[in-house]
Amino acid sequence: MEQLRQLGEAVGSINALMAFEAELRINPRQCRLLADACAQALAAVTGEVRAQLRFEERGGAKWRAIEAPLRELHRAFRDAEGYVRQCLGAGGDGGGISWWGRAAAVAHGTECVEQHLHGILWCVAVAVDAVEAAAEIAGSDPGEIARRRTVLARKYDRDMVDPTLFQNAHGRVYLVSRELVARMDMAWKEDRWLLSQLLEDMKSPAAARPLTKAERRLADVLAAPRGKVHPASVLLSGVGEYSVRRRLGGRLKEAQWMGESFAVKHLAGDAAEAEVAVLASVAHPNVAHAAHCFRDEERKEYLVVMDQLMGKDLGSYVREVTCPRRRVPFPLLVAVDIMLQIARGMEHLHANGICHGELNPSNVLVKPRQQDGYVHVKVAGFERSGTVTAGAKASSAANNGNANANATGGSGGDTCIWYAPEVLEKVSGGDPAAGRTEKADVYSFGMICFELLTGKVPFEDNHLQGDKTSKNIRAGERPLFPFQAPKYLVALTKRCWHADPAQRPAFASVCRVLRYVKRFLVMNPDQQLGQAVAPPPAAPPADYLDIEAQLLRRVPSWQGGAAATRVADVPFQMFAYRAMEREKAATGAHAGASDSGSEGNSLCGEENGAGATTPDDASSTVSGGTVRSRPESSDGKKTPVRKTDGKAPPRQTGGSSQQKVKSASAVKPPTTGRKTLGVKPEVPARRPTSGHASD
């Protein structure tokens, strides 16, 4: 009940701000959309609670099961309130420097839908799932409980796993009604048109306060489409005082302009024009992109005002928050949230035809958010190393450079540890740009996930450096996870760094899996500190990678990955995963406990070792704190493995170090020769579950 009261207060605060809607000059349509979405989310959740839970049991464990999802929804409401306050702060008649500064900061942003509505829609889906899970065990009448389970079974029937049917049947509850989805698609465009009309009125001779010449030039900057290059004089000697406050590393500086702090990137050289075009071709809350572009004709350089000022890079932040008493840098829920934000940023880049090529912790920027431990994440550094297949094209000279002048791969060591084996092959062959692909970016993402989950830089315990490390990576060597690492995240990470690029999932699939993993953690709060205690007490009731493989075959719109996932598609994705999870649980219940011995094939299955096995685990050896695949000879037999320095791998003695685990030969191998995406895992007999702690 306390969480519901807090949700009501948050929605009331947003409505109180929207009482001054007439004063909104920046993003009025998006603010109204956000306020309406919050109100509808509260109505949907309270309606589900009222229909499915008993009021007299409100102090019991069944109601406590929905507290964590409602806390996440409350956090999303507070973030939405902050966005409305920021836009309302840019109100007024446009007569002061602060108005121009705030308008320049928020006018081009897509945070309303891509960040805030994304969070609200995800939270509503999780909250509805939590209420349904509690309803299945609420009350004392067996007949009533049986009827509720029958209703839920019909709701999640496999025939309902269709986007159109889902929207028609459940669109209002999950905030994806046709009217609301249309507003999501049009709100940003409408606000851009309204801003252009406002600026035209301000420039009119009949305006109450005529604009100065400098203000007119700035109005042209705000009304121009993103990516248009303006004279540097508008920035350096226009409205407000422009001054550089400090260097942020590489070519990035923090500057004060019109009373607001901005990150400004200096670009020069033959590749500068292509880099500016790449930065202006994307716009996403999890991608560091250009908001306004300026060119100094005398110095032949560009000044790019970035969309948001970030604090530091991920590698530095991990080292900052890690200490002897806190070896794992983040709670599990925060780590998964960071992984999801990186994956969403990369999904947006790939959907726009951009391959990063230099994805590592030094090119992931973070900014701590509020007091809840969460951080805001942006992918950066793609403008030089990235290649564009549509739109602006980076030159080959740019492709051969690092993303930041001070980039060290996040560890101060070898940068090759972040590169995929096929990229290292191309580098050794003298063609570094040819190996930069979407699948290579997925490999680099897997290495970042390892650092987020363990607090250790990949291969940091390895005594080999430089070219020898590169050779070992190409030979199949990978970092070892500690024993207590969650197996379902270990499985996803290993799939991302798979030696065969074709086996690595696309970032759209990674995002769907991570959203559902995050749901599992929110609905099971005892799992959120699973890294710090060994072993975690439970795992998800189904293999999410297997569910993703089956849904890729069932839902045609998920195939190809040519376009990034729309925010309005998130509730259906969560619903489809839930339906498949229930179906698998029911199948396992009918199969009987005698079939549970094959559970070792599941990527989420319990294993006695470093985590769930993957295709490159079945035949591997442990070497120098890392795992290395054992190649096959021509006769099909496994050949002995020797490291590139000519020495045999050291024998494992079973220490207590976090990166030392049992040899892969000590882990029970899968019953099949090769684990492939899409093999159905066998599970012990049990009733249909929700992945909730109450089960």
From TrEMBL:
It comes from the Eukaryota. Residues 588-695 are annotated as: Disordered. Residues 616-626, 653-662 have a biased composition (Polar residues). Residues 629-648 have a biased composition (Basic and acidic residues). Residues 231-521 form the Protein kinase domain. This is Protein kinase domain-containing protein.
